[in-house]
Amino acid sequence: MKEEEKAIGLLDSGLGGLSVFRELKRQLPQEQIIYCGDTAHAPYGEKTDEEILAYVLSIIDFLHQQNVKMIIIACNTATAVALDKVSQKCALPIIGVINPGAREAVKQTRNKRIGIVGTEVTVRRQSYEKTIREIDPSIITFSNSCSNQIIREMEEQALQNERKITVLLRECIKPVIKNDIDTLIWGCTHYPFLEKYIKKDIDQRVRLVDPSEATVREARDLLEKYHLNNMSQPEPDSFFISGNPDLFAAIAEKLLGYPAGKFQKAIF
């Protein structure tokens, strides 16, 4: 197989990476995707840094075995904890979602007041804030960590309790949007799928930044830089799930609006 015909590897703690998958299929429909969803260990936001790094390293080893040409860490928590460390050990192009998302928010803001909502780990590590300050130290950021129950309602309950999700999201976002922000970063790849539940609670003038869009643009640029763009008919996408692949497939179809590919059990 030619290098450019190989798949892009995508990893996440569970379903959230589907927001990046969705964007990949929109921007780069000619590319095959191999998706690793580590639902057996989700949510990563409750794990220690050591545990998260071990999970990510195991999945990257698995993706190497699948002979991918690029890896995207489609999880904010995993990006915050592991990207710098695994980049030093990975011979393949590898990117996360935080730096592209932060750069996009800096482009979008007009009043230099940016809000961030994410998992406890991402917020605690101030991953977005660090990148934003490097670009423009005059920008003020306001962040809040959301309940991991939001992710559980997606991963385990298949979004059955929409009212509960709405209440939890509202509680998370309210302290941030009261600070006259004009840009809000979805600092967890699960959250863009939930935007519809609370959009009416956010001023229409606030720009909502889904880092997946900027992340895929960066992936596209890297493919072009290394001449890895696939020009052939891609193979079907594959999903390797450490938890329940049937449940994952059902929720994925609900989120994406179509059957996404072949789902199978895997141990990372």
Describe the structure.
This protein is α/β, with parallel strands linked by helices and 268 residues long. The chain has 2 domains: 147 residues, Rossmann fold; 114 residues, Rossmann fold (3-Layer(aba) Sandwich), CATH 3.40.50. It is 44% helix and 16% strand. The protein contains 11 helices and 10 strands. The strands form 2 sheets. A 6-stranded parallel beta sheet has the order 4-3-1-2-9-10, sandwiched between helices. Strands 6-5-7-8 form a 4-stranded parallel beta sheet, with helices on both faces. Helix 2 crosses helix 3, helix 4 crosses helix 6 and helix 4 crosses helix 10. The model has no long low-confidence stretch (mean pLDDT 95).
Keywords:
alpha/beta; six-stranded parallel sheet; four-stranded parallel sheet; 16% strand; globular; 268 residues; Rossmann fold; 11 helices; 10 strands
Care to give the gist of this entry?
With 268 residues, the chain is of the alpha/beta class.
Percent of residues in helical segments?
40-55%
- How many β-strand runs? 10
Which regions are unreliable across 5 or more consecutive residues at pLDDT < 50? none
Count of runs of 4 or more consecutive helical residues? 11
The count of domains is 2
CATH class of the largest domain: Alpha Beta
Major sheet size, sense and barrel closure: 6 strands, parallel
Radius of gyration (CA) equals 18 Å
**Spatial separation of the terminal alpha carbons:** 25 Å
Strand content: 15-25%
What general form does the structure show? Answer: globular
Strand-and-helix sequence, N→C? EHEHEHEHEHHEHHEHEHEHE
Structural class designation:
alpha/beta
The assigned CATH architecture of the largest domain is 3-Layer(aba) Sandwich
CATH topology of the largest domain: Rossmann fold
